[in-house]
């Protein structure tokens, strides 16, 4: 087999390159059996993830004035077809680059930025009264002080620390992707994906509801 130092052991390379090469080194029957089990696991993980993501998008769409009166089945079909269309570039010869771009440069930072704003908003803008009121509605008693401490202090620190780590891990931002150079358009797109959610979050806070 290939030497360990020649394998791509970062990101999706672990799953779709290194592990599959390891399976290929098994005896014939074992390689086929473990390959089927492995890729069934990947498929079920993907389906499980998509169910959660799709449900969140459908719920959000149904709460917007534009689609509030639309049939649920129509919103579901529209969401699934949109996701399918957006995934098509990932099935092309450049699919690995698109997936790496979306995951490494379009997911980490935006995820921690939005989560950090959400934590700060619920912890410090909404305040302890909001937490206690929500807890009394859901559980019939006030929130535990230990949980509030983690929610107000530990979680924001961890979130922004992870944001810093993710920012450093993709530095320089970004100049290369896999074995090629990420073009300027890709850099602009990755920056948009990373920071657009943060901008939308700030606008949602600043713009009063109708």
TrEMBL record:
GO terms for biological process: amino acid transport; sodium ion transmembrane transport. It is found in: Membrane. Keywords: Membrane, Transmembrane, Transmembrane helix, Transport. This is Uncharacterized protein. The chain crosses the membrane at residues 29-47, 67-88, 108-128, 149-168, 188-207. One of its GO terms (cellular component) is plasma membrane. It comes from Chloropicon laureae. Its main location: membrane. The keyword Protein transport does not apply. SUPFAM superfamilies: SNF-like. InterPro entries: Na/ntran_symport (IPR000175), SNS_sf (IPR037272). It holds the Pfam family SNF. The keyword Transport applies. The lineage of its organism: Eukaryota, Viridiplantae, Chlorophyta, Chloropicophyceae, Chloropicales. It is a multi-pass membrane protein.
